[in-house]
Amino acid sequence: MGRLTLEAKVGAFVVAGLVGLGIIATTIEPLKFQRGKYHEEYTIYFENAAGLEKDAPVRVAGVTVGKVLSVDVVDGKAKVKILLFKPVNLYKNAVAKIETMGLMGEKYVEISPGNPPAPLLKPNSVIQNTQIPSSMDEVMTSLNELLTKFNQAVTTPDGRNRMAIIMDKVSQLTSSVNRAVVNLNSVVEENKKTIKQVLENALSLSEMLKEDLPQVLENVNTLTSQLSQMTLENREDIRKIVVNLKEASEKAPQIAQNLDNLTERLNQILNEENTREIQTTLENIEKTTAELKEILAKVNEGNGTIGKLFNDEKLYQNLTKTTETLGKLASKVENTKTYIGFRGDVNTRTGEGRGAFTFQIVPSNDHYYLLEVVGDSQGKVERKKYYISSGSSPHWQEEIETNYRTEFTLQYARVFDDKWLHEGGKFVLRGGLKESTGGFGLDYIYNPKLIFTSDIWDTGRKDSDGDDIPPHLRVGVRYFLKKNWFVYGGGDELLYHKWRGAFLGLGVLFGDEDIKYLLGSMPGGIK
Predict the structure, then answer these.
(1) How far from 250 is each of 244, 245, 254, 289, CA to CA, in Å?
(2) Which residues form a coiled coil (predicted)?
(3) Which of 29, 332, 476, 486 is the most exposed, fewest CB within 10 Å of its CB?
(4) How large is the average pLDDT for residues 124-140?
């Protein structure tokens, strides 16, 4: 054989790179939990372990100390076995709960180790105390029940709106207040003179008390003191008391004058202008009461934003539907799985290599979406025509070009259960864009490790001479050596005899758990 072509060298380089990446990942994987010689197992029973998978982390105070060995169902409960590879003292009052971390919602077991005076928990024992956080579905169900109770609270047994009844009673109360204000206004109008006289007397009394009460109190104190002295010493002091009383009586005309002045001032206050101001204030109160009554009537009829909130049944129904939709969306996002992989293969007949980056989204078990970025050393042959107008004889000129562009695959896959050939097998029908052309695929999943594949694409293609050739047909088998690594091979270019041959390849496929572990292993990565 001659020397290898450039395309064969590129294909060999791609395969060698993938093999090196596989060796690195294979070396890291065994180290995932082999972090010491300490190995202790414990058992936990949860009422619900939704989302918790095998090999999920076990953490104490946020630090990974072990992993989940298995998740089984025993007597209607989830039996979870865990392995601790770091020494942690667990007491009988330890508490285990299922938590969620990371952007992709990974479930893990968080353990609160407990403390004395509880005794230490022996290995292979059961952690009795567990906690389970509420799921999104439970939250949505509680919210729906709350809305139902609210609707029942605002509705009477006979179907009437309680808020409307309350508003009606408030309207009646407002009418009563309005009538009371009118009656009060009438009473004030009818007894204006009497009220004026009462105010005059009150002002006179207050003015007198303000000016004379201190002096009166002082005189009483003096009199009391003098009487005490008169009793103890002699009766001569009684004369002085009489003199003081005489002086007090002489001040009576001055007090009378003060009362006259007080009356005059009160008349000035209760003039006609102040009476009009009181009347205006009462009228404003009456207008405000009428406006409040009108607003409450509109609310009761369902007019305006507030009225619609209290009376529109559709608003409640829309809110309930929105809550149910959010619950379903959250459930779909939580159940969606993603896979990322790399693969490369070589055609033994032509020596051409092909490498692909794969991204697979699996919303449910019956369908998924496949996205691939493909590099092909064989390239695509295109025939182009140019019209040459220069020279003496214009003519058409045809050229054959080979393009080595990056190609893309975007397909929708539907999964069907095998009811005829093998129990547990599945058929997968794919269709869409295949390496930037239309294509279809049919796979058969015999078991999780063994998969048979077939693809046909690129109709209307040409060879290096520019001649039309049949579509590209590839049939093969894929076998997973371990959890992530797989080898694959089969027949390539089965419809074109010049390029027909076998292909061999190697690939790796990482799931959600593997991606999180790889990201967490990087310096500063997601933990």
Answers:
(1) 10, 9, 8, 58
(2) 245-298
(3) 332
(4) 76
Residues 6 or more apart from 80 whose CB is under 8 A from it?
43, 44, 45, 46, 49, 52, 68, 70, 71, 109
Q: What is the DSSP string of 31-60?
A: GGT---S--EEEEEEES--TT--TT-EEEE
CA separation for the pair 320, 305 (Å, rounded) = 19
Structure tokens at 84: 């601790």
Which of 474, 491, 496 has the alpha carbon at shortest distance from 374?
Answer: 474
Percent of the chain at pLDDT exceeding 90: 24
Which pLDDT score, from 0 to 100, does residue 267 have? 66
At which residue do the structure tokens 């009586």 appear? 249
- Of 375, 377, 368, 378, the closest CA to residue 342 belongs to 375
Q: Report whether 480 contacts 507 (CB < 8 A).
A: no
Query: Among 441, 382, 370, which residue's Cα sits nearest to residue 408?
Result: 370
Q: Is the peptide bond before 253 cis (omega within 30 degrees of 0)?
A: no
What are the φ/ψ torsions at residue 152 (nearest 5 degrees)? Answer: -65, -35
In 3D, which of 60, 146, 120, 150 has the Cα closest to residue 96? 60
Beta bridge partners of 129: 95
Query: What is the rounded distance in angstroms from the CA atom of residue 21 to the CA atom of residue 342?
Result: 10
**Cα gap 7→249, rounded to integer Å:** 136
3-state class (DSSP) for residue 113: coil
Determine the pLDDT at residue 31.
45
**Beta bridge mates, 60:** 63
Q: Of residues 241 and 410, which shows the higher confidence score?
A: 410
Q: What is the pLDDT of residues 273-292, one digit of tens each?
A: 666 776 777 777 788 777 77
What φ, ψ does residue 474 adopt, rounded to 5°?
A: -130, 130
